[in-house]
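Crash report, auto-generated. Payload:
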Amino acid sequence: MAKTLWIGTRKGLIPVRRRNSGWEIGEASFRGIGVPMVLPDRRDGRIHAAVEHGHFGSKMHVSVDAGATWEEESCPAYPPKPDGVPDTICPMSQEVIPWTLRKIWALESGGVEEPGVLWCGTIPGGLFRSDDGGKNWNLVEGLWNRPERSAWFGGGADWPGLHSILVDPRDSRRVLVAISCGGIWETVDGGVNWNLVGDGLVAEFMPPESAHDPNIQDVHRLHWCLADPDQVWVQHHNGIFLSRDGARTFDRIRGAAPSDFGFAVVTHPHRPGTAWFIPAERDDLRIPVGNSVCAMKTTDGGKTFETLRDGLPQEHAYHLVYRHALDIDEDGETLAFGSTTGSIWISGNGGDRWERLSSDLPPVYCVRFS
Amino acid sequence: MPRVDFTPNLARQTAIASREVHAETVREALDELFREFPGARGYVLDDQGATRQHVAIFVNGEAVTDRNGLSDPVDEGSVVFVMQALSGG
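Recovered output after restart:
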């Protein structure tokens, strides 16, 4: 059962600790500085935080004492661009896609049998791997050098962003990543070779002849059931999708109400048919449907959805929940989400009832239990 | 000898101190300083060695013209000043 909820915000990393009396908000680390991603590594108890200075760029920090103190560690860096390698031009803006770190957007631990391995996803789309717990990072060139990268583009950000990394609990060499907008990619050899997967995803924002191209899909978030990783859920720019074959093919899930537009999805760790979403009205209206906040839950693989509203504001609300701002504890019952307007909610019963811990926080980028 | 100064906001984030350096270009001036304070490099320059988008470097009150290569010359009396650009943040 989780003891701490880490909240990465526009103005620092805020711990919320479970007490006998309930959840208690603690003092922030990195006060005033953005924390787009945090990784509590369950293997060794370390907390890794991506810290994004407005002027001085992205840094990585690590804590070995549950956030009491931090040390700056090595930050993923793109290697020098080799001579003769042509610029990659964004197909949308026709501008050169930068060959430099713009944002750390995803951090995940490797498998339990590879204790030093960490994965890091970035904008402009590069994936990094560390084999020594974050002391050194290497760009995963097998993905970065794929010719298909020239068709990727930004979704919400100016440049392509790698935001989801799933390490297969059955075989740590198998990893799925998702990119906005660059589809879903799979490696089965620890990152040397990559295959484009995701047939069945549909990008309605593209011209019709490109809508089914797996390489330009805007997957907002990718999540799977730890007990059955062949069941992969996607919250996509154009709806909700479910794969039953490890992300090779997807079926579109219809009938999510009040909306199938949103960014975040989490799956129950033991029940693959159970997943939660936080909807917004639609692409061009990114506020809660009818200004009332809700979560959606399916327990039958998307055949039906329950709308969860108890404890959530039901009028005059403008909260948007980013893709990393919803998490579920390994108990499968404790969930939390945070909003762009600085509220954080937690539920101890699968979302049936929510408690707002604060409405005064900075915009929330990510939440993670440890 | 040319001198390198910094915005105090940088010193709040990483170990750095003003120094006189032996240098003929801004790049050489910064490189000498970063040999003493290696952790500061990534706060001023990006991973390709170019000036960060929201950092500005001045020599004697004039913004450097070569933000990527940092080839702007410095001489005995030069003061290189590293500051936050008034953007971003």
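Post-recovery validation: The radius of gyration of chain A is 19 Å.
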